[in-house]
TrEMBL record:
Transmembrane residue ranges: none
Biased composition, class Basic and acidic residues, residue ranges: 15-24
Protein name, UniProt field: tyrosinase
Protein family: Belongs to the tyrosinase family.
Organism field: Gibberella zeae (strain ATCC MYA-4620 / CBS 123657 / FGSC 9075 / NRRL 31084 / PH-1)
InterPro entries, sorted: Di-copper_centre_dom_sf, Tyrosinase/Hemocyanin, Tyrosinase_C, Tyrosinase_Cu-bd
Length: 662
């Protein structure tokens, strides 16, 4: 039985004795011989004997971890429960619910450990992933000990040593949902994660509930939704959209992945986000005082949409765990997804090490805003030492800014580092950053890749609206369109919802044609269940009370190019008029606050050759072919296009106001 007393220190897995630090204090981390976190498909399909052993140990250890009694602090149930349900205290940290009449030091104003829509969103999850990694590793040790006791594995010293080596060099896998994969369906779930239906075509059950789980008495939390509108003849467009939801699933699946890759590419492009706050969080700051026209695309927004893609949002038939904050961590894919989020955070830190709490995010004029997170805020309930102080010996963002403090690196960052070493074997940071930029651009296809394909292979005419206004600009250019969105994450009592965007609809009229082929993107809020999320989450309740808004961005250009490739027009419903039931929602309960469309001319350039000679290369040497770097999206400022959104509910109007929004 695990000891539930004291605090559990999250320290990372043991560092190998031959690991050597090859970077200066405060520099981009490079530690020679540090074990790496692999993309899950790489590890699962590897033929390398050591990696095969790691995969075997991971699968068996995860199963053992899941079967631990729920009363144990280091059980899967309790570790997953940190993220939401069952809303209990963990590891002697301040409990999620406090007596507000008699507050004590360390008490949280509303309770709950969730950290979303704030500047510590990515950093709070970093020690969380390290905790999960540590728990799986401990169970690997138990698996090997079981083999020794039951199967006399220790009689073969060499074989036992290989299994221990596999354990000691294993690190948690990540799932790169934005990368084109090698399995049959590009941008789909890794095959190793997919369990097919039974012989009758029915979904397989999760299995029996663990003993003691029922004691927590977590109530069902059904999603409430409005009934379908009356079937007036003028409402055909609305009814048809609901009826087509299932038949058009393939369309939505094909849309999402390309946008994920493009969004990741944009997020890492130079100056697309210019502050830590813009990169880290969906929290909105007053336009003109914080967010620029292209400062709406954050890591958290991309993260939210992946939760929606995995869990689904067909509320009429039910959604998966990943779509709902309180239960998301109970889906094992959560850990692969958030290890990927930590990887993207690490990449950002490599590219822009100075953009780390670089400036205080401004408050909205005339309003008292919720104070922003700081890098010294306690990341409850994650303790940094065994048997330490439950309130004060807690991880903070500043202490885990260097992710290698947990003794892991990512496979691709390690590979690129080894190609950017100087003569002394230390990391050449400028060369590494240039290689990393090129790697990102090649790994995550963006608008430029599709545009090149159209010009080189498809021989399709590009409409004037997608070509730059600037004369004599080079071929690697296009006119880029984006939708900037501002919304209230807590409008429905904290319940998650999706805002979908469609092309089409009469100009200057408050109507849109909800045809699936017109669908161009969505924003998922990733909130909680409908029952009590705001009352049980400190961060959520505080922000909701203060009226804090969120922001997101939907890139449009790829969708417009696909219409060009397919030679399709934006579908206009024939024979139906404007639905009778379209009315302006009340501002106080509106989910969508405002949105606008903007455009700018974008150009891509090639960088001079960069050395990829590997270790001991000459500092600053050149070799190989020129590399294409990510587009620079701020060379020309984005200009708002109110003519597209004028007279649309919550859209930007010609006079600079928003119809019905705030």
């Amino acid at each position: 039985m695990t000891d539930n007393s004291g605090t559990y220190g999250i320290k990372g897995l043991p560092r190998p004795k031959d690991a050597v630090t090859r970077h200066p204090d405060g520099g981009i981390p490079y530690i020679e011989n540090l074990p790496v976190r692999y993309e899950i498909s790489v590890l699962a399909s590897s033929t390398d004997p050591l990696l095969r052993k790691q995969w075997t140990l991971f699968v068996l250890a995860l199963e053992k971890f899941k079967m631990k009694p729920v009363s144990e602090k280091l059980s899967y149930f309790q570790v997953a429960g940190i993220h939401g349900y069952p809303e209990g205290a963990w590891d002697n940290a301040p409990p999620p619910k406090q007596d507000l009449k008699n507050p004590k030091k360390g008490d949280q104003p509303y309770g709950g450990y969730c950290n979303h829509n704030g500047l510590n969103f990515p950093t709070w999850h970093r020690p969380y992933m390290a905790l999960f990694e540590q728990c799986v590793w401990d169970n690997m040790d138990d698996v090997i000990n079981h083999w020794v006791e039951e199967h006399k594995l220790d009689q073969d010293k060499a074989e036992l040593a290989l299994w221990n080596e596999a354990k000691d060099t294993w690190r948690m896998q990540y799932w790169d949902w934005a990368r084109q994969q090698s399995y049959n369906e590009d941008f789909a779930y890794p095959q190793v994660l997919v369990q097919g239906p039974d012989e009758d075509g029915n979904p397989r059950a999760f299995g029996d509930m663990l003993k003691g789980k029922r004691d927590y008495n977590i109530e069902d939390d059904p999603v409430k939704h409005n009934p379908a509108p009356p079937r007036d003849k003028e409402d055909v467009a609305w009814i048809r959209q609901k009826a087509q939801a299932k038949t058009n699933k393939d369309f939505y699946l094909k849309w999402n992945p390309g946008t994920l890759a493009d969004s990741v590419n944009r997020m890492f492009s130079p100056k697309y986000n210019t502050t830590w706050g813009q990169f880290a969080s969906t929290k909105w700051t007053y336009e003109g005082y914080g967010n620029s026209m292209n400062g709406f695309l954050s890591l958290e927004y991309i993260h939210n949409n992946v939760h929606n893609i995995v869990g689904g949002s067909d509320f009429a038939t039910g959604v998966g765990h990943m779509s709902d904050v309180p239960v998301a961590a109970f889906d094992p894919i959560f850990w692969l997804h958030h290890t990927q989020i930590d990887r993207l955070l690490s990449i950002w830190q490599c590219l822009y090490p100075k953009l780390w709490w670089d400036q205080k995010e401004p408050t909205r004029p005339g309003e008292v805003n919720v104070p922003d997170d700081t890098e010294d805020d306690y990341l409850y309930p994650f303790h940094d030492k065994d048997n330490g102080g439950p309130v004060t010996d807690v991880w903070i963002a500043r202490k885990c800014r260097d992710w290698t403090v947990f003794n892991y690196q990512y496979d691709d960052l390690m590979d690129l580092s080894q190609k950017a070493l100087n003569a002394k074997g230390n990391l050449d940071e400028p060369r590494f950053q240039k290689l990393l930029q090129a790697y990102i651009h090649n790994t995550y296809p963006c608008t430029e890749h599709l545009l090149r394909d159209i010009k080189d292979n498809r021989h399709v005419h590009i409409p004037a609206g997608l070509t730059p206004d600037v004369p004599n600009i080079d071929d690697n250019s296009w006119k880029d369109y984006i939708i900037n969105v501002r919304y209230d994450r807590y409008a429905l009592g904290g319940q998650s919802y999706t805002i979908n965007f469609y092309l089409g609809g009469p100009t200057d009229e408050a109507v849109t044609h909800f045809e699936p082929q017109n669908f161009v993107g969505s924003v998922y809020t990733f909130g909680g269940g409908s029952r009590k999320t705001l009352d049980s989450c400190a961060n959520c309740k505080t922000q909701a009370d203060a009226g804090v808004l969120s922001c997101a961005q939907v890139p449009l250009t790829i969708q417009l190019l696909h219409h060009t490739i397919d030679c399709t027009q934006v579908t206009v419903l024939r024979g139906v008029g404007q639905p009778n039931h379209v009315v302006a929602p009340k501002v106080r309960t509106s989910e969508l606050q405002t949105f606008s469309v903007a455009a700018a001319d974008i150009s891509v350039s090639e960088s001079p050759a960069v050395s990829t000679n590997g270790t001991n290369g000459t500092n600053g040497s050149a070799g190989g072919a020129p590399v294409t770097l990510p587009p620079v999206y701020n060379a020309q400022p984005y200009e708002a296009l109110p003519e597209i959104t004028n007279n649309k509910y919550f859209g930007l109007q010609h006079d600079g106001t928003y119809m019905g929004g705030r």
